[in-house]
Amino acid sequence: MFLSCGDCLFDLFAQPTDDVAAASLSGRVGGSPLNVALGLARLGHHSAFFTKMSCDLFGEKVRGFMERERIDQRFLIPTDRQTTLAMVSLGPDGSAAYAFYIEGTADRSIEPDEVPNSFPEELEAVHLASYSTVTEPTASALVRLVKQEAPRRFISYDPNVRASIEPDLDVWRAKVDEIVPLASLVKASEEDLAQLYPGRAAESVIADWIAAGAQMAVVTLGEQGAVAGTANGVSAMAPGQQVNVVDTVGAGDTFQAALLAGLKERNALRREAIAGFSTEDVEELLKFAISAAAVTCSRKGADLPRRSDLGLPALG
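The structure assignment produced for this chain is given below.
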């Protein structure tokens, strides 16, 4: 079982209208960690989610979505706080920009003492990402969870920087420095690196994260593909895939889910397993994640692929 933690929101896309006094919005369930949970579930893996969940209209929609997609809800904490909302605007190239309505919302309000003291033995990997890792009290709750589980479970981390929520990039850098040593897998985008470490090459940051304790570090490069390194000295790069881009919402989360699914299906959700990877092993994993992300880019919103979309057989 995978447990994804943190951000849980509704993305609201503005629809064209000629009336300057009207706004038409199209909403879709979102949030980086929830997208990863969705991606894993659609790839046939037992996927659960941990967050504080609103009882408002949007929260009920999210629960219905989780039920439909077979995302395990047993770790959700009910609350009367409102659901986080994100206004999404798309550039001419399909790239997404976000404005958040987030003060005091449900997914930002997990208290450290609300973290379960134990999880079922079937839990193999924990994933966390984005603004929930830097906004209190949820940030402290997730660090407590990771420190508790890192000694015996695979930890996956994606900074997924959202400076519109926490504009102090030193806060993000400090959190990266705190979590990376606990993580087996760290993935970031080139946009994340441009904010966190302006002017630094992806390979240099990967080397630092490996030296800090990560077993594998990956940086996505948009249409140029992705680059990765492992603690046993393997480095690899895979090219991007040509696709008619509708938008890029959820592409990075799809990549993350595919990385985790690929590791699971190689029986490699363990540091010692990744330590045995060859360059070809890492390249193959990157290519799979890129192909999955390309499917999402060809669709509107975070509509992540199923196994059949990738030409994969059903899991037994």
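Interim note for the steering committee: The chain is about 35% helix and 25% strand. The first helix runs from residue 32 to 42.
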